[in-house]
Amino acid sequence: MTEFWNPWHGCRRVSEGCAHCYVFALDRLRGVETAIHKNASGFSRPVSHRRGGEFRYPAGTTFFTCFTSDFFLEDADEWRGDAFRIIRARPDCTFEIFTKRIDRARALLPLDWGDGYPNVRLSVSAENQRRADERIPLLLDFPAAARGVAASPLLEELHLERYLVSGRIQWVSAGGESYEGARPCDFEWVLSLRRQCEAAKVPFTFHQTGANFKKDGKTYLLPSHRLQLAQARKANIDYRP
Q1: Quick check: pTM over 0.90?
Q2: Are 61 and 86 in contact (CB under 8 A)?
Q3: What is the chain's alpha carbon radius of gyration, rounded to the nearest angstrom?
């Protein structure tokens, strides 16, 4: 069972991958201006209970965390301690955390973090080679139970071979950019990453084509996010060692 948990909403752009961020795009479609705020109604979602007293979300649930913000966002420093306490209260669930702010994350960890909470899987975003080379070395040195790389939005061909051979990256996912102004994602870039992962025996997932997808020299415009997901699945290039 998978669920989304957004304890806070809104973000600030920090790199090239943020230029057409889906958070801002979706807010525009809803007719609201993106503002950073604590999600009061959903902050405690993973530890919410049913009337009978049992947790609303059962053991084994995977929570995709902070998908409308960044878990290590500067503006969320005052709320993060409570979020960590919620994560600690559900050791029977998995929390997937993606960040572009791995550079500030170590200083924000709780005192009992140790080598990483066993139920937290941490990924960094790497939209181009520059950001990959900035963030992945920090991730490799970061105390975490599991580490991954989200090459999304994939804006150019990446070479991650020297990081994958370390054995400290447990997965890579790749996907194109969605919504208004989406920049091209070339299938050859995706296949290159897949080959690198296969050589290093690292799991790989192609999770979405993006809205502006190039394949065999042709450009395909796919405005529907559902179609982008379906076409990525249809490519059938996910790799599991």
Answers
A1: yes
A2: no
A3: 18
